Amino acid sequence: MDCYTANWNPLGDSAFYRKYELYSMDWDLKEELRDCLVAAAPYGGPIALLRNPWRKEKPASARPVLEIYSASGVPLASLLWKSGPVVSLGWSAEEELLCVQEDGVVLVYGLHGDFRRHFSMGNEVLQNRVLDARIFHTEFGSGVAILTGAHRFTLSANVGDLKLRRMPEVPGLQSAPSCWTTVCQDRVAHILLAVGPDLYLLDHAACSAVTPPGLAPGVSSFLQMAVSFTYRHLALFTDTGYIWMGTASLKEKLCEFNCNIRAPPKQMVWCSRPRSKERAVVVAWERRLMVVGDAPESIQFVLDEDSYLVPELDGVRIFSRSTHEFLHEVPVASEEIFKIASMAPGALLLEAQKEYEKESQKADEYLREIQELGQLPQAVQQCIEAAGHEHWPDMQKSLLRAASFGKCFLDRFPPDSFVRMCQDLRVLNAVRDYHIGIPLTYSQYKQLTIQVLLDRLVLRRLYPLAIQICEYLRLPEVQGVSRILAHWACYKVQQKDVSDEDVARAINQKLGDTPGVSYSDIAARAYGCGRTELAIKLLEYEPRSGEQVPLLLKMKRSKLALSKAIESGDTDLVFTVLLHLKNELNRGDFFMTLRNQPMALSLYRQFCKHQELETLKDLYNQDDNHQELGSFHIRASYAAEERIEGRVAALQTAADAFYKAKNEFAAKATEDQMRLLRLQRRLEDELGGRFLDLSLHDTVTTLILSGQNKRAEQLARDFRIPDKRLWWLKLTALADLEDWEELEKFSKSKKSPIGYLPFVEICMKQHNKYEAKKYASRVGPEQKVKALLLVGDVAQAADVAIEHRNEAEMSLVLSHCTGATDGATADKIQRARAQAQKK
């Protein structure tokens, strides 16, 4: 244990800091870090170096080289810089490299040097050029802050949703500030800058002068400032050699330290651990590294070569040409277990386990001591927690073996924390490997989440490892393996040295019917890479037509999209393709395409019936469909035309179409309608009233109601209305008029072709029994009983029924007999029925 704590350095009485090597860098840098623009992403992220930047001592012909490495120094990308001078580099939260140029254009590159996009920070920045820039991270995303040559600031809090904010002017600012940084307060990004002995805070509305509380006197300038990883704390380095530390709101002072060095540091970053009360700042000069906090002493390290500091959630990464190290506060669990002469439960349990392996009885003594104090659960938990904060697998195993040993003597210790820690450490050790190069700590891993870590492995194209982690952690397929396979397939389609057939086959063999994988998304990526044929082949594996069709339309494969839409049976999808085709093709080609697809043609006709009647007519003309064309003109004659001449002309066109279709019935009917329309117009002119658009029957009825009986009869003859129908029309009309005298004359004009029972029924319908009785006597024998019952003459109906000896008629009469008034009639019928049965 004494050897283990050899690299522990106390800062005051309550905290230790340790620095250990993550990797031995093998990146073979040809230049010093100070000659490069450097950017390193947090959470064990990649490192970007822009070699040969625009320096006066460099020859003008030397092209800058942008190189990207993993945190272990493994090369990821290298490209010659062919754009303008770069002022600053930085990584976004999505691990995209942002390169801020002097003209205000920000170029965005992927992890492997692939160009993604670019955006401008505005015309003002373009005109005044960029003096300095900062890339920062907030809860909304990654932002960019620019200091222009006019000493004004422009800021965007989220480069994914670019909204530029021009910050207020600082009064009296004639030169660049001595130092500045971005701070986030109340979910808003601000600019904090130093001008001589004064500090100014810029927000979107105003410029405010601020003063750090408790600052030592005699300060004439601030040389460096640093905001903590969580934007909660601020450190200021003054020209007097003092380092002021306080809250980022500048309302509270934490401490102040005199480092006795007045030279401005190269870098200053915070080094703090989540949920720790200790606060420390790491300051770097050319060959010295100093850790200062709320203690009179500091921790100092000698730097053998140029180094670069990367602030992290729980510490500071320090890399140089040869090494990559991590400096952090020793976690509480580790401190309690490993500090000299510790009697913490975890320390005793670790000793007990070691003695047990030696088969020493001291193991029992240590174990009894812990159990007597009732601290065995706490000891197990301490060992589990300390294992998570250890970087080296051997020490992790030692602590986990101690925890497992202690668990054996506990009845009800929940195993979840132990199992979860074993899983987490196995994942962490896998990604910390030199060839992977993501040196995450346990705290960073928990803050980052497994899903983000998987995304970062996918960005590095480490698909096998990502899939192994998903299977090991048993993540749901949609969130794990399926998602990674989809990313792999999207990368696979970018390999242009492999044929389309081979790529499509390889993707299908690997993915199959894996749930959560969308072949249409992969096809869209293939199309974006200019591989249209590959995209079409991939779409053949997509089971959802609704996903196939939009991409086929985008690829201008409209006819294939139409076939797929028809196969799906989704009419909405078919309509979508049809409307797209209509806008894409000329009219002739569009109609020819429809002729080859009967279902699409039928659906388009339905659409045209409601939306585009002229197009429907053109369709019928092109197909020589005279039957439908005739029907179209008939509908058009009623829908559009108001003048009788126009309607008759449309009907004439319809009749001609019906003749061409050899539908003589429809043609004759149309011609009859034309004659009727002309006659109705003439009747309106001569008689007044409304006749147009009435049916033939309604026209005859209207004439009768108007007293124009002769005209009605003439109309019936002209249109060959059958006598029976004419008699019914006239009977109904005269009864409605209650012209009983005319009705009687009409009934006697000649023998009724419909009989006289209808006269009885119509009169009774008009509640005129007197008139009904006149016609009841004229009703034929077969309907006599029914007529007599209609006028209420039950007794006479009974006599007729008995006379006819008709069982059905006698039953009908009985059903109309009431008990009191028709008792004799009922008895009479019953006797007649009895006699008939005897015979």
Automatic annotation (TrEMBL):
Q: How does it assemble?
A: Core component of at least two putative endosomal tethering complexes, the homotypic fusion and vacuole protein sorting (HOPS) complex and the class C core vacuole/endosome tethering (CORVET) complex. Their common core is composed of the class C Vps proteins VPS11, VPS16, VPS18 and VPS33A, which in HOPS further associates with VPS39 and VPS41 and in CORVET with VPS8 and TGFBRAP1. Interacts with RAB5C. Interacts with STX17, MON1B. Associates with adapter protein complex 3 (AP-3) and clathrin:AP-3 complexes.
| Pfam families the UniProt entry points to | Vps16_C, Vps16_N
Membrane topology value: Peripheral membrane protein
The subcellular location is: Late endosome membrane; Lysosome membrane
Q: Single GO molecular-function term?
A: actin binding
Query: Gene3D superfamilies under this entry?
Result: Vps16, C-terminal region
Q: Which residues form a coiled coil?
A: 349-376
Into which family does the record put it?
Belongs to the VPS16 family.
Per the database record, which ranges form the Vps16 N-terminal domain? 4-420
Question: What name goes with this protein?
Answer: Vacuolar protein sorting-associated protein 16 homolog
> Which Gene Ontology cellular-component terms appear in the entry?
CORVET complex; early endosome; HOPS complex; late endosome membrane; lysosomal membrane; recycling endosome
Which species is the source of this protein?
Answer: Capra hircus
Stretches assigned to the Vps16 C-terminal domain: 517-835
What's in the keyword line of the UniProt record? Coiled coil, Endosome, Lysosome, Membrane, Protein transport, Transport
Single GO BP term = autophagosome maturation
Q: What role is this protein assigned?
A: Plays a role in vesicle-mediated protein trafficking to lysosomal compartments including the endocytic membrane transport and autophagic pathways. Believed to act as a core component of the putative HOPS and CORVET endosomal tethering complexes.
